[in-house]
Amino acid sequence: MLKEFTINRPTWLIxxxxxxxxxxxxxxxxxxxxxxxxLQARIKRDVLFRxxxxxxxxxxxxxxxxxxxxxxxxxxxxxDDDGYFNNSFATKTLMSINDxxxxxxxxxxxxxxxxxxxxxxxxxxxxxxxxxxxxxxxKVNFVGEYKING
Length: 150
Fold this sequence. Notes:
With 150 residues, the chain is α+β, with helices and mostly antiparallel strands. Helices cover 32% and strands 17% of the residues. The chain has helices at residues 33-40, 45-48, 54-57, 67-73, 89-99, 122-135; strands spanning 4-8, 77-79, 85-87, 105-108, 114-118, 139-143.
């Protein structure tokens, strides 16, 4: 698992900035926070392309039991009793923060799901993403300028 990675604001796939379906890597080269992590963890672009979440990567037969992919995703995925990979609670929370519009509340996932804070602005979203990754001992850096005001 990476110890540090960078999110490039202009290509960060957040709802206020890009009107594309949320995925790890879009056809325009934009990434959500988990897609940025995946690319910098050296997961191949074609593995991340138009895939909704880390667990979806493993739904393809060629990736189903990939130890290498599981190691690269680290704590972002968990393996269930049947041997299938699933998004961890942290991943689900990160997806909610990434994909929720400013002004709305995200969901914090855990053994019991609960309502998270209202995302106040883009800087607040960055703080929330940074805090969630910090729980996994991963540092997040942000570079560049948004294509919108926030």
